[in-house]
Amino acid sequence: MNYLREIKKALLLGVIIFIVLQVINLVLNQSLPSIENIKWNFLYTMLYAVVLYMANALIFIQLDKYFERIGFI
Fold it and tell me: I want to staple 18 with a disulfide (CB 3.0 to 4.6 A). Which of 34, 45, 48, 50 is the partner?
């Protein structure tokens, strides 16, 4: 189904968000945090991005199926 493709997009989006946050952190603080902090930041960013993306994707996939079935569009 479309779920594997959506998981790949969610992971890519999470990595992009993490990189942007680290660049902002580097610009503001002029240094990167420790490896331990980067590990936890990556974990939290990926968890947040994947869960939020997948929740939205699943809702919209189901809505597309519903409205396709009833002939709304």
Answer: 45
